[in-house]
TrEMBL record:
Misc. comment: The thiolation reaction likely consists of two steps: a first activation step by ATP to form an adenylated intermediate of the target base of tRNA, and a second nucleophilic substitution step of the sulfur (S) atom supplied by the hydrosulfide attached to the Fe-S cluster.
EC nos: 2.8.1.-
Keyword Transport: no
Main function: Catalyzes the ATP-dependent 2-thiolation of cytidine in position 32 of tRNA, to form 2-thiocytidine (s(2)C32). The sulfur atoms are provided by the cysteine/cysteine desulfurase (IscS) system.
Entry protein name: tRNA-cytidine(32) 2-sulfurtransferase
């Protein structure tokens, strides 16, 4: 690729990232005037990308909000504790490094060979909530992206027996904070490319020595294979999460199946119970392989086609 072509592609990627993050922020009312957003930075590509894009949007947003980057140094062996302070000082953004040796606690409590992630995450969550309170943060921003959300949906279906994903916005389990995921619409592959282009000083996530979550890895591979074989499928799955039809699922608490009555009236949009499955038109693709927003809206894509993103409209 020529340097000109590369620069063009990177500019396109930046626009797309800003547009998608802006769209999620608007769709879910994630950031409001006067918010103080605590951005959790792990040193991985996703959280670097999140901070980077939020800083770009902050300059052009119609609302004023503050950003403060927070990293929790869990004292994992070999954690390069100079990397993030050096990076954040260079950016000139307010930041806080919280040092808490959760690594020793987890090592002490969990038998060797058992996965440490559940206790580790619980401890980390508690600490981050406390830090958010001390810093006066009104929102906590996490770097989970579209693929994380879809993986979670599948993991919950396969192993949890629940149709449950990872929300773009939620109230923290202690009821005190609004947690937001501004990368909810962003595909992981875009974050990988962005991290390479921006040369983020990535800190490896294997320092704790925990075994990889095999199931999450398998589901991740499945989604990546699908994405290669059937471009647009993951995008469509994300739309599906935003277009839930309780009458066509089986949750009796969401739809009154037991008291359902016939109406005697024809309904053009009603279910044709004995027809073959409705044919679903294939997604329209833009020249960069992304789903084309301007394409004729199809079922499940109306919201996307209508979305206006004032804070990322450049
Ligand atoms: S991978 Fe390591 S640092 Fe991450 S949650 Fe698991 S134990 Fe904690």
């Amino acid at each position: 690729m020529t340097p000109e072509k590369l620069a063009f592609e990177n500019k396109k990627l930046e626009k797309r990232l800003c547009r998608e993050v802006g769209r999620a922020i608007v769709d879910y009312h994630m950031i409001e005037e006067g918010d103080r957003v605590m951005v959790c930075l792990s040193g991985g590509k996703d959280s670097y990308g999140l901070l980077d894009i939020l800083m770009k949007l902050q300059k052009r947003a119609p609302v004023n909000f503050e950003l403060i980057a927070v990293n929790l140094d869990q004292k994992q062996p070999g954690f390069p504790d100079h990397v993030l302070p050096a990076y954040l000082s260079k950016l000139g953004i307010p930041y806080h490094i919280e040092t808490q040796d959760t690594y020793s606690i987890v090592k002490e409590k969990i038998e060797p060979g058992k996965t440490m992630c559940s206790l580790c995450s619980r401890l980390r969550r508690g600490i981050l909530y406390r830090v958010a309170k001390e810093l006066g943060a009104t929102k906590i921003a996490l770097g989970h992206h579209r693929d994380d959300m879809l993986q979670t949906l599948f993991l919950n279906m396969f192993f949890g027996g629940k149709l449950k994903g990872m929300p773009a916005k939620l109230v923290s389990d202690n009821g005190e904070f609004m947690v937001i995921r501004p990368l909810a619409y962003v595909p992981e592959k875009d974050l990988i490319r962005w991290a390479e282009y921006r040369e983020f000083p990535i800190i490896p996530c294997t320092l704790c020595g925990s075994q990889e979550n095999l199931q999450r890895k398998q589901v991740g591979n499945l989604l990546r294979d699908w994405d290669k074989q059937f471009p647009g499928r993951l995008e469509n799955m994300l739309h599906a999460l935003q277009n839930v039809v309780p009458s066509h699922l089986m949750d009796r608490s969401l739809y009154p199946f037991q008291t359902l009555q016939t109406t005697g009236m024809a309904n053009e949009d009603g279910d044709k119970a004995f027809d073959a499955d409705d044919p679903v038109p294939p997604p329209a693709l833009a020249d960069d392989g992304a789903l084309d927003d301007e394409a004729a809206p199809r079922a499940g894509n109306e919201t996307r086609a209508r979305a206006v993103i004032p804070i990322a409209a450049h």
